[in-house]
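User: Could you walk me through two proteins back to back? I'd like the raw sequence and the structure tokens for each, with a short line separating them so I can tell where one ends and the next begins.

Assistant: Of course. Protein one, sequence then structure:
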Amino acid sequence: MEKRYFAIFKPYNMLSQFTGDENASLLGDLHKFPKDVYSIGRLDKTSEGLLLLTNDNEFKNRVLDPLNKLPKTYFVQVDHDITPEACKELAAGTISIKHNGKKHRVAKAECKKIKTPQLPERSVPIRMRKEIPTSWIALTLREGKNRQVRKMTAAVGFPTLRLVRHSIGDLKLGSMQPGDVIEINPNEVIAGFSR
């Protein structure tokens, strides 16, 4: 079996899967992928950014295995002007979120406030309120629970308005645009995840 690796910029309002309701926007709408290729992990429907697909199960397991602590960086636009204290709390590993009906204490992370990143406009703009500012953070996690970033920013009082996964390990969105699909050379992929 030939091993294939793809990087995509998952657009807003698309499911990270190949099957769904007739009206759903699905990964297969972007490209004619081989039948045995699946996404590595997920981004929820309203999140955007880097998603990897492959038919290499060993590689998929290496990316997803929590023991490998592979960093994933998200650019997150939040409601209000986030404080240094909230950024420290997001990084400290002290926040508890609900996951599968149980409390989960998140692992330590990296968080810093950033200038508005150069990102393509979202297909549906975020709701803006004139009197309430927004701000951006770069949040790097080494675990991935369902809707974790959104739960974490809500826990510190700064709800997520827009969420874009910028990188997985050494692989970054770069100049990709929503809906772009790039087939990656297996040597590049393995090199980017071998540390």
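----
Protein two, same layout:
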Amino acid sequence: MTKVSKILIVEDESSIRRVLKKILEEESSSYQVDVAEDGEEGLEKIKAEDYDLVISDIKMPKMDGEELLVAAKKLKPETVFVMISGHGDLETAVTTMRLGAFDYISKPPDLNRLLTTVRNGLDTSKLVVENTILKKKVNKKYDIIGESTPIVRIKEMIEKVAQTEARVLITGSNGTGKELVAHQLHLQSKRAAQPFIEVNCAAIPSELIESELFGHVKGAFTSAVKDRPGKFELANSGTIFLDEIGDMSMPAQAKVLRALQENMITRVGAEKDVKVDVRVLAATNKDLKKEIAEGRFREDLYHRLAVILIEVPCLNDRRDDIPLLLTHFVKQIANEQGTVAKVLTEEAIQLLKEYDWTGNIRELRNVVERLIILGGKEISKEDVELFANK
């Protein structure tokens, strides 16, 4: 079945409006074409309907095309706009493109040019929709599951902090979900469309951490066969997440401090500085104040990072979330394995709520996966006793 493409023509001249509508409807039976006499009417229609493409005149009474473009993009950023004008000049074209228009066509429009632009615009609209759906799926992967008081507080803090540029230090035991907090801070920020670069400081050898973070130039060391940007450069205009920052070497800490102070980094072996614009989030399972006292972590770096502190609770401190987490993991694992989601009995859920979860949410997910593989069609208390290995 052919998908209907919804097109809106916003044009104050009735003759041009009729001609454009007729041309498009004759071009394809899959085009559903609506019209509006001015920008105000056009905006009301855009509020009420999801259009794949809007063709708008620029010079109109009440609300002109540029005003409509700006207002519509605020409401529905994915809407594709093609602007037309009988008063065309290069400056107007550039302005509308900067405001988010897909294309600009002078009046009277060349028929072939118009139809080609409409087809290309609709293809772009389709890609935008597909990307939006895919992005929602990816974002859902980083949802923070839970309704307990500690989790509600964290969600509220994320909502307040995400839109700012404040640096955040996320603390908590292994397996509590510190990386989910970092992802949510990025996804709810103004930088959400820009890169999110994650660095596990504990997994990188100390002799390589500087090259990993700041890059290197060819010949800086034996294996440096070409110039290579570091994570800070890759994260430019976006967010860098320094996980397990408590394991970072002191020399690397000094360079990270400089990057935070001056928004500048230097590749290993280079003399020229590189300006970077990154938001820094960090996480650790260590007590950094104790690390400072014992000379393993820089106090000045701590204060640069810990503008906002978010402590993620252990699973034992949020047991009321366990039923929600169980439901989430059962569905997630069933989708991954292409099987039907199993049901846990109330007795099984209650027993799992009583366990001591030293490995936190990561351990809980592993147990759920084991129960799905080894347990019966319905996961019982007996299955938990046999396979949870607690």
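The domain at 5-139 is CATH 3.40.50.2300 (Rossmann fold).

Let me know if you want the two compared in more detail.
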